[in-house]
Design a protein that fits this description.
Blueprint: H1 2-16, H2 23-39, H3 41-52, H4 56-82, E1 85-87, E2 96-104, E3 107-111, H5 119-131, E4 134-138, H6 144-157, E5 163-165, H7 170-177, E6 183-187, H8 190-202, E7 207-210, E8 216-219, H9 225-237, E9 249-253, H10 257-272, H11 288-296, E10 302-305, E11 309-310, E12 315-316, E13 319-322, E14 339-345, H12 349-356, E15 363-367, H13 371-380, E16 385-388, E17 409-410, H14 416-421, E18 423-431, H15 447-455
Parallel strand pairs: 3-4, 3-6, 4-5, 6-7, 8-9, 8-15, 9-14, 13-14, 15-16
Antiparallel strand pairs: 1-2, 2-18, 7-17, 10-13, 11-12
Helix pairs in contact: 2-4, 2-5, 3-4, 3-6, 4-5, 9-10
């Protein structure tokens, strides 16, 4: 406890010294971060393979590639983002000029999850650095090899009083949440997110919560079924379904259900072979508890594809399940694994009722060629973000903010939005002293009449 207190105290001292305020300092740190990622690339592949059996393709596509794009984007636009913004001033404020200054929050805490342990620890850090903050990173204890590597990389690259890593279990997380941080960025489950928010509220610390939920994938009768099946297979089963924005379940129009499921089976075998568990590069479930939770769902509904498991290596083949409903255990919480329930609908309006069973999902995906229906889904259903005729690809565009709504999260990041998340917009009005307008003061005879006209 004393060590963590001292750590936060030292970071606060560094922040108050003003070192992180300059463009020169921030750009240099972002460049160091970029070099760090490139230098450790072989070790990154190795650690993620040890923790989650991730293939080199998955590491590049879902962890490294995103971080490289994100840090390059921040380096390119940092100077522009940092500039004070001049805004309009009303006539009632004659002689004044108005500005928005970009102020860092200060000392930040970043708590990362286990499913993308490198990506989701370092991506927020890019925003924290760009905005001029210091940072303490708490990586997941469930991915020990990657967490150890993150600590080694950060320790070698940055001063401890600027950026540091604290490892440990939930007791360490609790200690960290007792500290007077200026901002907390958490990625993880809804139950833990509630604890983070409760702890932060006791000190009125602002938070970003990147959570999850049951993200629906809707396949309408006019969808291009083969394309839909291919893109849903990729989005669902990458990282063995352990992705916060993976399609959690499919709602398919009952007229095309049979055709769609046949396409789905073929696409799974094209991407992962008939038995992915034997391929050697199919991601494993993170631990025994999660494995047991997922396999308990296999007793529900009818398995129409897959279902094979290997507890020794914590592997579960891509599995399609039908004949489940919202009372089934598999539909109560986010699945976070390679199990895909299939439900059906007749009328598009029914989709709204389905989603309301687990409202405000982090993502939603809709497959249809009908633009009117695409607009109806987009405007009438609440969700964090999503795609039309694709899955997960919205994450890869750093011009789009990423974040949830309601139970799927608070706040957003990626690209400029990461900078803005870790920045307080400070409003400043600069008033002239060359003259003073008498009507603003209570002793002005004409003040009330002039003010009424101005405000109208």
């Amino acid at each position: 406890m004393t060590e963590i207190k001292e750590l936060v105290k030292n970071q606060k001292m560094m922040y108050r010294a003003g070192k992180t305020m300059t463009y020169t300092y921030r750009i240099h740190q972002l460049q160091k971060l970029k070099e760090m990622i490139n230098r450790y690339e072989p070790r990154i592949y190795e650690s993620l393979n040890k923790d989650l059996n991730k293939s080199t393709y998955e590491v590049l596509a879902t962890e490294l590639g995103f971080l490289q794009q994100e840090v390059n984007h921040a380096i390119k636009y940092l100077k522009e983002w940092m500039q004070p913004k001049k805004v309009k001033t009303p006539t009632s404020h004659k002689g004044a000029k108005s500005f928005i200054y970009k102020q860092p929050y200060g000392v930040t805490l970043i708590i990362g999850p286990w499913n993308y342990p490198l990506h989701l620890a370092i991506a927020p850090l890019i925003g924290a650095i760009a905005a001029g903050n210091t940072a303490v990173i708490k990586p997941s204890e469930l991915t020990p090899y990657t967490s150890e590597l993150i600590e080694e990389m950060i320790q070698e690259t940055f001063e401890e009083k600027y950026i540091t890593v604290v490892q440990g279990d939930k007791d360490v997380s609790q200690e960290l949440l007792e500290q007077p941080f200026d901002y907390i960025f958490f990625t993880g489950s809804v139950p833990v997110g509630k604890i983070v928010m409760e702890k932060a509220s006791q000190q009125l610390i602002p938070v970003t919560l990147e959570l999850g939920g049951k993200s629906p994938c809707i396949v309408d009768r006019d969808a291009k079924l083969e394309v839909a099946a291919r893109r849903i297979t990729w989005g669902k089963f990458v990282n063995a379904g352990q992705t916060c924005v993976a399609p959690d379940y499919v709602l398919v129009h009952e007229d095309v259900k049979q055709q769609f499921t046949e396409h789905l089976k073929r696409e799974i075998e094209k991407m992962y072979t008939a038995n992915p568990m034997e391929s050697g590069d199919y991601s494993k479930i993170v631990n025994d508890n999660h494995f047991d939770r997922l396999t308990s769902y296999l007793d529900e509904g009818d398995i129409i594809y897959g279902g094979q498991t290997d507890r020794t290596n914590r592997l579960i083949n891509p599995t399609i399940i039908e004949k489940v409903d919202w009372d089934s255990k598999i539909m109560q919480d986010e699945i976070f694994g390679p199990l895909l329930p299939i439900l059906t609908f007749n009328q598009l309006e029914e989709v709204y009722d389905h989603v309301e069973h687990s409202r405000n999902p982090l993502a939603l995906y809709y497959f249809s060629e009908n633009e009117k229906n695409q607009e109806w889904i987009t405007k009438n259903i609440s969700f964090g973000g999503g795609c039309i005729n694709d899955t997960m690809m919205h994450l890869g565009n750093n011009q789009l903010p990423f974040g949830g709504i309601g139970t799927s999260g608070i706040g957003q990041y990626h690209g400029k939005y990461s900078f803005e998340t870790f920045t307080h917009e400070k409003s400043v009005l600069k008033q002239t002293t060359s003259f003073d307008l008498a009507f603003r003061y209570p002793n002005s005879k004409m003040g009330r009449n002039i003010l009424k006209k101005l405000f109208k």
